[in-house]
């Protein structure tokens, strides 16, 4: 199992003074206008077989009855915090500031835990002291609670150990955060917080930075239910905005110390996703990343190919300034003169951009350009 040179197999600090065999679990529950499902989520926490928990419920400026529903609960383990609306990431950061527990768990206002979730995850972590986190399986459910596909049906893996590379590659290692329980001490040691700029993908960004320092275990048990409905923020957010938020996640991963230790395949995949998929149509941002040290570290043939594809997709967007496409084709040909396709396209572009565009369209036929899939469009099919 590979670990970056700057960390050991296990980093732990003592937080609080919970019972030795029953450590306190701190649970974050951000809430915004979730009156339809909130009571069920809280009830699923109250139904846990493992009793040593605190629930930090942050009402992020709800304008419906969410605050009143939360206030009805008199269990002393539930702490209700009200704040002006500042977004999911800010609400999660508020929860982190309030916590006292040894372990950190997650549940959203429209999701559910099965009664054994905390019991099994805490037992796993106690039995595997080399692990700083564990994740489980579960099910998607619809708005009426009907069971759909398993979480694992939409994941790669499962992966265990130092899974930083797998988490950086894509966000489908865990899926929703409610299946994860992790070491809060490690969060505090590295001052990990949620990025308020990110509306879609704040959990992926958080888990990526946590995974740089942690061992993960996997518990092959169904312990949670993730609700898919028309008011999920992932569903409501437009695809262009969603791509922009995911691009921030990608950029932040590039800055992590361990990124350069990833395989060439993964580093290539990250730049391909960033430059070809997520930033398509934003050529000034694409151009900015061509100066990044991690980009320069990629093999010349890889960079030439990505530059050529960037130029191709930009030319196919007729409303975009073709000067960027010409610059990328010129760079592609310069760094890899052996690439015949780049040489041909650059020659055609110099004659006229429209000639190059027409040739590319002829070769591509009716193949559609890349488009982000609609979230959850395949659930239940």
Task: Explain what the structure shows.
A hairpin with a 5-residue loop joins strand 6 (133-141) and strand 7. The chain has two domains: 25-236, Spore Coat Polysaccharide Biosynthesis Protein SpsA, Chain A (Alpha-Beta Complex); 263-364. The protein is built from 16 helices and nine strands. The chain has helices at 38-46, 66-71, 88-98, 117-127, 164-169, 184-189, 202-211, 233-236, 239-254, 264-278, 283-289, 293-296, 300-316, 322-335, 340-351, 353-364; strands at 25-31, 53-60, 78-83, 103-106, 112-113, 133-141, 147-150, 180-183, 216-227. 40% of the residues are buried. The protein is elongated, with a radius of gyration of 23 Å. With 381 residues, it is an alpha/beta fold. The model is unreliable at 1-19 and 372-376 (pLDDT under 50). Strands 1, 2, 3, 4, 5, 6, 7, 8 and 9 form a nine-stranded mixed β-sheet that branches.
**CATH architecture descriptor of the largest domain:** Alpha-Beta Complex
Mean pLDDT: 89
CATH class of the largest domain equals Alpha Beta
Shape category: elongated
Q: Share of helix among residues? A: 40-55%
Structural class: alpha/beta
Fold-level CATH name of the largest domain: Spore Coat Polysaccharide Biosynthesis Protein SpsA, Chain A
| β-sheet strand percentage | 5-15%
Domain count = 2
In CATH terms, the superfamily of the largest domain is Spore Coat Polysaccharide Biosynthesis Protein SpsA, Chain A
Task: Please write the string of helix (H) and strand (E) elements.
Answer: EHEHEHEEHEEHEHHEHHHHHHHHH
The tally of helices reads 16
Our Rg estimate from Cα atoms comes to: 23 Å
């Amino acid at each position: 199992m590979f670990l970056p040179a700057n960390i050991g197999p296990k980093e732990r600090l003592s937080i609080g003074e919970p019972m030795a065999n029953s450590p306190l679990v701190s649970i974050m529950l951000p809430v915004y206008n979730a009156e339809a499902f909130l009571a069920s989520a809280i009830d699923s926490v109250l139904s846990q077989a493992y009793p040593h928990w605190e629930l930090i419920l942050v009402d992020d400026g709800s304008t419906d009855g969410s605050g009143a529903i939360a206030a009805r609960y008199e269990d002393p383990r539930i702490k209700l915090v009200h704040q002006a609306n500042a977004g999911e990431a800010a609400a999660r950061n508020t929860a982190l500031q309030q916590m006292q527990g040894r372990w950190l768990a997650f549940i959203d206002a429209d999701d559910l835990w099965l009664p054994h979730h905390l019991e099994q995850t805490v037992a796993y972590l106690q039995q595997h002291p080399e692990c700083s986190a564990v994740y489980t399986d579960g099910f998607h459910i619809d708005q009426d609670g009907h069971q759909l596909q398993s979480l694992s049906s939409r994941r790669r893996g499962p992966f265990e150990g130092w899974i930083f590379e797998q988490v950086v590659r894509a966000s489908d290692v865990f899926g929703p955060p409610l299946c994860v329980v992790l070491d809060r001490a490690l969060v505090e040691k590295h001052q990990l917080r949620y990025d308020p700029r990110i509306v879609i993908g704040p959990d992926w960004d958080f888990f990526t930075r946590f995974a740089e320092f942690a061992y993960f275990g996997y518990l092959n048990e169904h312990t949670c239910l993730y609700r898919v409905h028309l008011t999920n923020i992932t569903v409501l957010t437009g695809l262009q905005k969603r791509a922009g938020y995911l691009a921030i996640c990608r950029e932040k991963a590039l800055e992590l110390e361990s990124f350069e230790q990833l395989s060439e395949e993964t580093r290539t995949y990250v730049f391909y996703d960033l430059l070809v998929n997520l930033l398509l149509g934003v050529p000034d941002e694409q151009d900015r990343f061509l100066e990044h040290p991690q980009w320069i570290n990629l093999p010349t043939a890889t960079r030439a190919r990505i530059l050529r594809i960037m130029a191709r997709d930009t030319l196919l967007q007729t409303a975009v300034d073709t000067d960027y496409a010409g610059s990328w084709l010129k760079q592609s040909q310069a760094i890899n003169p052996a690439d015949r396709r780049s040489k041909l396209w650059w020659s055609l572009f110099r004659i006229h951009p429209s000639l190059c565009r027409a040739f590319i369209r002829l070769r591509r036929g009716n193949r559609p350009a890349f488009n982000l899939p609609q979230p959850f469009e395949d659930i239940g099919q």
